[in-house]
Amino acid sequence: MADMTKIVLDEAELPTHWYNVVADLPVPPPPPLHPGTHEPIGPEALAPLFPMGLIEQEVSAARYIEIPEAVREVYKLWRPAPLYRARNLERHLDTPAKIYFKYEGVSPAGSHKPNTAVPQAYYNAAEGVQRLTTETGAGQWGSALAFATAQFGLGCEVWQVAASFTQKPYRASMMRVWGAEVHSSPSELTAAGRAILAEHPDSPGSLGIAISEAVEAAMADEDTKYALGSVLNHVLLHQTVIGEEALLQLAQTGDTPDLIVGCTGGGSNFAGLFFPFLREKFAGRMDPHILAVEPSACPSLTKGEYRYDFGDVAGMTPLMKMHTLGHDFVPDPIHAGGLRYHGMSPLLSHMYELGLFEAEAIDQTHCFEAAITFARTQGIVPAPEPTHAIAAAIREAEACKDTGEEKVILTALCGHGHFDMAAYDAYLSGQLVDHDYSREAVADAMRRVPVIEEA
Ligand SMILES: *Cc1c(COP(=O)(O)O)cnc(C)c1O
Q1: Structural domain tally of the chain?
Q2: For 260-284, what is each residue's pLDDT tens digit?
């Protein structure tokens, strides 16, 4: 038992419920506000964008929500996902620490994103929606939604951030294979896109801009709704299938985690991994230290301010209280495309304020150095995003060499890097540079974030 390297579950052990951490928080998270009136909004305000099935989950306080049978059937195409003990890496580091990683790269799209794309497509299809629009940065979310909509017979239209659209053409190809229509953002197809292009014809785009375009397109058509791949409560909820499986798998080894570390863009893979473990921590059954790692170039948790801001550049989304770098943030062209969003999940931001986990930022060259070590020992080429967590895990495991501590480290390898070879080439040829986002830039952006009087 203790010697297992690849820890698997039977199909019959696929979790039947998602876990809603909101039910166990000492203080509920602050409500979203109307973008115009700044008054708290009710669930009905979200109805033009999302189906009721997802809105109910967004505001739910129920501890467990059942995974529909049709969603579980699609999950079974790749779930339960394996948990690995990184023995080769441990040996290479000569550490007494045990490193476990939950591998989400086995999904059809190659990341954890289908865990939420599938239920999102399901609930939309169940309510008669014909088509979904969305934004994508690196292309992981767009390809996950293209895959999921194909499973339920829905149309799919994706606005991909221009910088990635050019840098990573094969993600868009993959989306087209699954039947989606893909546009470079900013585009001429929406008022939001045209406004940006009028001022910056060469705009590299941003997730905030692409969200404005996708939301505008969904609002313009009654049969079309919008899907978001991270940040929102229902997305984090769907991702808890990762942590629920990992709990069962770690139990097989007899180990309990001392450190859970994950990378954070909007926060969904990290939340999905640690929420079920936090429940166990609340119940006194384990006491892991929990750590989020973000890029130095996009440090929403560690340098962003905790305040109400828009989710998009045009100010069309509700105002959400979150750690933010400002909704008009245009990131440096770092390679962890999935970690370039200006805001952090409002639920995670709230939990960060409650002190339920810690956060740090790491430079991309450091992350790629860790990625190479990981690929050469464990074999899997990681997506640039999870290399942030790998870098922290390696550092923590190395620290155990001095203390002799058999620390149990758990992380999520939330995607493979097969579409990110240009980033690896840049690193291997010494062309990768670090970008440190400055406090001055944050302060400047805050001048354009609305000031909200809070009761
Ligand atoms: C989208 C993405 C992320 C960032 O999103 P989170 O919501 O923070 O998980 C991280 N890793 C991969 C592989 C992604 O595709």
Answers
A1: 2
A2: 999 999 999 999 999 999 999 999 9
